[in-house]
Amino acid sequence: APAYIHERKYAGKSCPEKLTAIRREMKKNQANVLLVSALDEIAWTLNLRGNDVHCNPVVVSYLIVCEQEAHYFIQPGKVTEEVSAYLKEAGVTLHAYESIESFLKELPDSCIMLEADKTNYAVYSALSPTHRIVNECSPIALLKAIRNECEVAGIRAAMQRDGVALVKFLKWLEEAVSAGNETELSIDRKLHEFRAAQPLYRGESFDTIAGYKEHGAIVHYEATPESDVALKPEGFLLLDSGAQYLDGTTDITRTIALGYLTEEEKTDYTLILKGHINLAMAVFPEGTRGAQLDVLARMPIWQHRMNYLHGTGHGVGHFLNVHEGPQSIRMNENPVALHAGMVTSNEPGVYKAGSHGIRTENLVLTVPAGEGMFGNYLKFETITLCPICKKGILPEMLTAEEIAWLNNYHRQVYEKLAPSLNKEEQKWLEEACSELK
Which of 10, 274, 334, 363 lies deepest, with the highest CB count within 10 Å? Predict the structure, then answer.
């Protein structure tokens, strides 16, 4: 499929502006050539998108940024006349995808910056022994992760449309499960229908995880015709899904009580909610890394001798890959600090094989929290808009502060989504967002 232009009204900054910023970062590393292999970094730099990778709107290609010029290596059949003219105007020279190795062999002696563990071995081997190689993280990763004002506005708009689709789906689900004709696969298809009806929708950001009861305990479960099961008015449904819109990428998990729950299920659900809220309320000094915050989400379940073996948070692209670096929130050390403008997931969970799985996920935007002792502080703003199921909550396990956070979040969800819903949907949402006492 051909590549296409991601318009500036969504991207915020033009390709030449981004190339200027990249060259500025290259100079800090005393490099005069940057070899880019990461497809999302190329897509972001050139403001191009494509359909070469399932759920990720990228194009298989290479990019070389020099001090005064840039070279783009792509299959000619993927380049339309419009894209060709656009790249020429941006100062980017087109080359056939297969010519990357010969181009590097003929490149004059240079200081070449690249990420060795993300570079094809054949391409790496094409570099001359006389080239000085700087094996460093690409400067594009951090530039891309810190959203500009246009990107932030787009993400907020995408979250609102996604929230509308989810509310319509959740209302339908509540009624459909009681009728007794739905399965994991059928609700996946129905959710797709609601999202596809939203403006600027371009597809799913990953394959939906719809795990009922014990299937929810399989972290990356994907229903198949062989594993598909019918939903009943009992137990939990873990639903992890997301969408690609021209102005943003979404990723959300809700664990939904379909009916009767055991005390163990309610306890686990409430503990995960406590961890989610603890992280959502974090205030921290500039320079803080995700590994320093991860404990906030895990402490409630650690106190019950439970844990989960995935990260608590990953970066999310802007109409790009749903998993994106360089930041993360996880137990493993990551030297990249959190910066204002980054979008990261907040998704603690607990999984008990053969019984149930629980995860609550929202996306958060890192924003300034004002000046304080020894410098500036940051905090998280939750930007996902969708009610959190209250049916599994044991209110006596929550603090007053945690209840206040949940009620405030639900007020925002109702205020922002209700105007886009019909009367029946508004009534359902009003109940879903009613205060927890």
Answer: 363
- Rounded-to-integer distance, Cα 249 and Cα 320, Å: 7
CA angle 390, 396, 402 (to 5 degrees): 65
165, 196 Cβ separation under 8 angstroms? no
The answer, as to whether pTM is greater than 0.90, is yes
| Host H or E run for residue 88 | helix 81-89
Strands (E) in 225-352, as ranges, are 236-241, 243-245, 248-249, 252-257, 283-285, 313-315, 324-329, 343-346, 349-352
DSSP annotation of 340: T
State the Cα–Cα distance between residues 354 and 45, nearest whole angstrom. 45
* Calpha distance 356→185 (Å, rounded): 18
Q: What is the mean pLDDT of each run of 10 residues along the chain (437 residues)?
A: 95 97 94 95 98 97 96 97 97 96 90 91 90 91 97 98 98 92 96 98 97 95 95 97 98 97 98 98 98 98 97 98 96 96 98 97 98 97 98 97 98 98 98 95
| E strand residue ranges, 152-272 | 201-204, 209-212, 236-241, 243-245, 248-249, 252-257
Helix (H) or strand (E) run with residue 408 in it? helix 400-417
The amino acid occupying position 409 is Y
In Å, the largest CA–CA distance within the chain is 71
Structure tokens at 280: 């959502």
Report domain extents, the chain: 4-143, 149-432
Helix (H) or strand (E) holding 210: strand 209-212
Spatial separation of the C-alpha atoms in residues 128 and 85, rounded to whole Å: 32
Torsion of CA 115, 120, 123, 128, to 10 degrees: 50
Do 393 and 273 touch, CB atoms closer than 8 A? Answer: yes
Element spanning 378, H or E: strand 375-382
The three-point CA angle 122-127-128 to 5° equals: 135
Cβ burial of 122 (10 Å; 0-12, 13-18, 19+) is exposed
Q: Is 149-432 a CATH 3.90.230.10 domain? A: yes
Measured between alpha carbons, how far is 339 from 316 in angstroms, rounded to an integer? 14
CA dist list (Å): 432 to 127, 261, 361, 436: 59, 18, 17, 10
Annotation: CATH topology of 4-143: Creatine Amidinohydrolase; Chain A, domain 1 (3.40.350)
